[in-house]
């Protein structure tokens, strides 16, 4: 599931945040197939952020 999407048209950057790593990897693996953000976005990158600590 997608949590957040941010598109900066001037710099041609789209940032999509996923809450689950598996969802992000699935979307990333097919990112070039569908041109979801238009034909001008040419590179795709995936970044892994540290998990938030669990509060008990």
From TrEMBL:
Domain of life: Eukaryota
Protein's name according to its UniProt entry: Uncharacterized protein
Source organism phylogeny: Eukaryota, Viridiplantae, Streptophyta, Embryophyta, Tracheophyta
């Amino acid at each position: 599931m997608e949590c957040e999407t941010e598109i900066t048209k001037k710099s041609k950057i789209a940032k999509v945040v996923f809450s689950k790593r598996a969802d992000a990897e699935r979307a990333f693996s097919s990112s070039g197939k569908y041109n979801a953000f238009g034909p001008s976005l040419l590179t795709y990158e995936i970044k892994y952020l540290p998990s938030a600590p669990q509060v008990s």
